[in-house]
């Protein structure tokens, strides 16, 4: 089919053609960026935590006033929790993933540095942390018994305390020592005493969103035994089907173990419930953006259908003449499909340029990442398919008009 007659016809209907091109361009620009933002949020919501989430429950408690025997009370609590039927392991933590509050510290590779290489979150670990959370060690080892420190001794120390060992995440290791083995290397975080990396775990997310998506797994574990007074987080591991039962039993056990503490029931949940609440906002945003995309596509489709129907009505004589001169229904159908394809292509090209411009604005104003190029052809393909589907009905009606009726007034 020749393109020139189609272009000639469009030039005689500049206003209508321009409006549909602008509509497609605007839709393309918004759709490309919206799909990118939806993809980012879906990736964020589905990010691995490193924990066996379906086996964990978290009980948070707080003391009434200062407890001089917090360390002894913590040992009593852990013994009681670990002795419960159905409990695989239990630990106490200074912080828990998916709580939007985290302990953070700068990390340097030498004492001469005036600025940190990164800011990482700090987990304090007692003996059963790795078994409880289900962390996967990918290099090195876990802490040895003589490497553990008591939090109270660290907290009350008058001078700097040397943290003898640390286990870090793979993402943190790759950032500090790209392409190298991190095990056995030193870094500096709490003061000017070196801390040696003894192991690397595959994943362990930061409890909060501090630092943005790139820093989600900049996590380090120190062999410091915290007390219940430091965060008040007890995490218990059990089988998935017994989580609710164990959660209720753990609350009763801790209340009986230390009546001078309060169980914060609003924060006492399964780990999966904590995760669902933590990702509620990005999940809702992804749904909202999806609805916006569908709405835009629907409006664009209505515009294409309306314009195509109008043009079919206006070109009844032209269609009849072509049918009378031997044009087949397929040729009439292809004419309108080609016409729509040309309009959609022009709109898509303009839309891609606008999508890049909108992305630059979002990068500057909201620190959004750069739009990957593969989202542009995805948006283009969606609009091409939408255009062809939308114009199909009016085009088939045009192709089915009998030449005798179409040319009656000629």
Please write out the topology.
Elements: H1 4-11, H2 14-45, E1 56-63, H3 70-82, E2 87-93, E3 104-107, E4 118-124, H4 129-133, E5 137-140, E6 149-150, H5 151-156, E7 165-169, H6 170-176, E8 186-187, E9 195-201, E10 219-222, E11 224-225, E12 233-238, H7 243-257, E13 261-263, E14 269-270, H8 271-278, H9 280-314, H10 316-324, H11 329-366, H12 375-399, H13 403-406
Parallel strand pairs: 4-10, 6-11, 7-9
Antiparallel strand pairs: 1-12, 1-13, 1-14, 2-12, 3-4, 5-9, 7-10, 8-9
Helix pairs in contact: 2-9, 2-11, 2-12, 3-7, 9-12, 11-12
The percentage helix is 40-55%
- Sheet with the most strands, sense and barrel status: 7 strands, mixed
Calculate the mean pLDDT score and round it.
87
Low-confidence stretches: none
**Order of helices and strands, N to C?**
HHEHEEEHEEHEHEEEEEHEEHHHHHH
Count the DSSP helices: 13
Distance between the termini: 25 Å
């Amino acid at each position: 089919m020749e393109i020139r007659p189609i272009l000639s016809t469009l030039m005689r209907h500049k206003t209508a053609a321009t409006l549909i091109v602008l509509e497609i361009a605007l839709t393309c620009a918004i759709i490309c960026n919206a799909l990118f933002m939806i993809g980012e949020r879906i990736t964020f919501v589905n990010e691995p935590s490193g924990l066996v989430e379906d086996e964990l429950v978290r009980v948070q408690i707080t003391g009434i006033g200062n407890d001089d025997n917090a360390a002894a009370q913590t040992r009593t609590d852990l013994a009681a929790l670990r002795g419960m039927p159905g409990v695989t392991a239990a630990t106490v933590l200074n912080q828990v993933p998916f709580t939007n509050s985290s302990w953070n510290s700068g990390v340097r590779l030498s004492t001469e540095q005036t600025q940190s290489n990164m800011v990482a979150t700090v987990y304090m670990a007692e003996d059963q942390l790795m078994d409880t959370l289900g962390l996967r060690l990918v290099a090195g080892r876990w802490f040895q018994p003589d490497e553990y420190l008591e939090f109270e001794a660290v907290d009350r120390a008058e001078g700097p305390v040397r943290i003898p060992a640390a286990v870090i995440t793979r993402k943190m290791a790759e950032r500090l020592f790209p392409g190298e083995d991190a095990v056995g290397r030193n870094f500096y975080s709490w003061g000017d005493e070196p801390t040696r990396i003894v192991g690397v775990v595959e994943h362990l997310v930061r409890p909060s969103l501090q630092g943005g998506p790139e820093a989600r797994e900049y996590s380090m574990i120190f062999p410091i035994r915290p007390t219940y007074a430091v965060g008040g987080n007890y995490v218990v591991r059990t089988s998935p089907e017994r989580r609710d039962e164990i959660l209720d039993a753990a609350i009763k056990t801790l209340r009986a173990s230390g009546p001078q503490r309060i169980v914060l029931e609003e924060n006492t949940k399964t780990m999966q419930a904590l995760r669902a609440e933590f990702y509620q906002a990005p999940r809702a945003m992804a749904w909202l953006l999806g609805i916006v995309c569908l709405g835009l596509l629907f409006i664009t489709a209505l515009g294409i259908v309306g314009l195509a129907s109008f043009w079919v009505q206006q070109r009844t004589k032209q269609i009849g003449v072509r049918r009378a001169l031997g044009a087949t229904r397929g040729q009439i159908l292809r004419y309108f499909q080609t016409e729509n394809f040309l309009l959609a292509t022009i709109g898509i090209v303009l839309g891609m340029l606008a999508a890049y411009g909108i992305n630059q604005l979002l990068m500057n104003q909201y620190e959004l990442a750069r739009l990957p190029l593969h989202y542009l052809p995805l948006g283009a393909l969606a609009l091409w398919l939408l255009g062809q589907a939308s114009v199909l009905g009016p085009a088939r009606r045009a192709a089915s008009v009998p030449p005798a009726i179409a040319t009656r007034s000629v």
